[in-house]
Amino acid sequence: MAILEVENIRKSFGSVLVLDDISFSMEKGTVLSIIGSSGSGKTTLLRCLNFLERPDTGIIRVNGETLLDASFPARDFQRNIRLKRLHFGLVFQSFNLFPQYTALENVTLAEKLLAQEKPDWKEKKSEYHRAIEEHGRELLAEMGLQDRMGNYPHQLSGGQCQRVAIARALALNPDILCFDEPTSALDPELTGEVLRVIRGLAERHTTMIIVTHEMAFARDVADEVIFMDGGKICEQGDPKEVFGNPKQERTKQFLSRFSET
Amino acid sequence: MKKLIAMLLCLVLLAVSALSLAEAAGDKDYVVGKGKLIVGITDFEPMDYKDENGEWIGFDADLARAFAAALGVEIEFQEIDWDNKALELNSKNIDCVWNGMTLTDEVLAAMTCSKAYMNNAQVVILPAAKLADYATVESIASLTFAAEAGSAGEAVLNDLGYAVNAVQNQAAALMEVQAGTSDAAVIDALMAAAMVGEGTSYADLCYTLPLNDEQYGVGFRKDSDLAAALDDFLAAALADGSLMAIAETYGVQAALIVE
Amino acid sequence: MSFSEQFPIVLGSLNTGFLQTLRLFFITLLGAIPLGMVLAVGEMSSFKPLRAVIRTLVWIIRGSPLMIQLLIIFYFPGLVFQTPLWGGGESGRFAAAAVAFVINYACYFCEIFRGGIQGIPVGQDEAGMVLGMKPAQIFFRIKLLQVVKAILPPISNEIITLIKDTSLARIIALQEIIWAGQSFMKGSQGISGAIWPLFFTGVYYLVATGILTIVFAKLEKKLSFFR
Questions:
Q1: Which residue among C78, C84, C171 places its CB closest to the CB of B81?
Q2: Which pLDDT tens digit goes with each residue over C84-97?
Q3: How many CB pairs under 8 A join B and C?
Q4: Most buried pick, A114, B104, B158, C37, via CB within 10 A?
């Protein structure tokens, strides 16, 4: 069964149609890359998946459970929205780390807050905290940041910040981890360390949706690629096919611009 | 909602008209009814000033206390900003102005006042060094004067057509002369006696040349029946000698009006 | 009277006046900060009429002199409604002054709070949301400290202005320190024509603002661990 099914998502801002009938699905443990020019709707699609935007129409299902059916009233969208969001993780282009917390605190804060909702929180508070901190340390070590756990975001480089943000998103064990142009805000010499980390996650079969402008990376790491244009899915398939032998004229044009540079 | 607002408005109007009726019933009844006479004053020796215990004393203060006792009410002294005396009265935050107040046309227009009870004059303040050059009213015509805004001194200067810098209070008028920003000042004779010359911050100034004769009275709200009540009280106090006794306590018996 | 004889009398009088100044200062802070927060929340509400009411209030209060507001609040009840709401005595004057100052400063604080809250990047909200946090958790755990840090300089500015603004209350004859200093020019407690007490009040303000400056510098330093 597909881990994620998206059906007929439409979204417009005012009179501008940003997403026009988007449908796709993906399997657990695979990596989906979404490419396309700026304004093609990639970021809006990710924001819909993370319930930061409410689609006008469409259905989102995770593991067969319908999280969103836009034909239901708006109230339904808000109900349990926190829990629905937890199926997804989101890594932002601009990191959005919490500046007053250390790297480790950034990673553990949400998990600690969620633990407060557990029935035995009061009795086992210190045990929970210890386990959560341990988990946070492991994640940061995986990101190669074992020496940076006590640093505040302003003391870290952009690449280090983005790796903290990835650890933060992973801390809640989302079903699907989404990346919104994770390297676009970085200096070119810092993109490598972030891409390496994402590649490592792909090798361990983390289910991921990656919106990116790094074409070579998308081709290497993705199991499936979607090319979006004007709010529609223009072409979709195996990366080798889409990159090596694009069928649509728009895809060819788009990719040729990248191969030139 | 609209009905509610309308009803509230009606209630407010009713309350206001009821209160206005209460006022029409008489200011004396109002003061007696609340059991307290609030006297608006400024710190003005020898009329109203504090003794070493912080109690208000002075010719006016003692007289006001006696008047309140005659009305059968308590007394409260409240220092006010002199510029706002009419405002304080009309807003009922005080019940009278009793502070060596000169009965000028402006005061008489704004308040209902008692009969005059004491004589005063407006005098010219000059640097002592210049005293000899300015001995007559004509000789001072070319000078620029400082006087308290709204005071009797300012009114006199305006009548004479002399140049006036209106300042915030009589003390500020003195400071103008001391600082040289005005050539001379015009203030109350009673105050001048206390404030300039040897032993004050204005040792180099002196006072001379009375510009007018004027008189002190007590101010009440417009059309208040308390003014007449005070006139009766003062007449009785004059007759039984208690008024003169108070005046002698503060050394102002010469200025008291005794006809 | 010699200066050394005047000094203790004047000091006693100025101390009494300054106590009134400080009372007005602290009560204004105590009232205006919470009221400012309430107004700021109201101004960001999605209920349009409420926003309009608060904006109008803020416009009127910030757009007119505090001195006029003091006069209106103290004198209007008696002048217009024949009901001297506050009572003419010193405590009534203090109450009226406190109300005027609280409302006035709440409006300034409201705008500072609103600016501070709206100045936090929306990404902080969204990061909290995708991590499954509740709105209250996002506000208190993530945004509040950032807001405090951002508004500290303008707030300290307002608070230092406030301690000097309290002298405006003398317009309704509240006997704060300037009033006390001025009384010796006219004559009070056997001292008349003395100019120096008025200027000496400046020392009190300088000490008070000096302390405030140090306190705020310490607070800013405390919050300098993040950017």
A1: C171
A2: 888 778 888 999 99
A3: 109
A4: A114
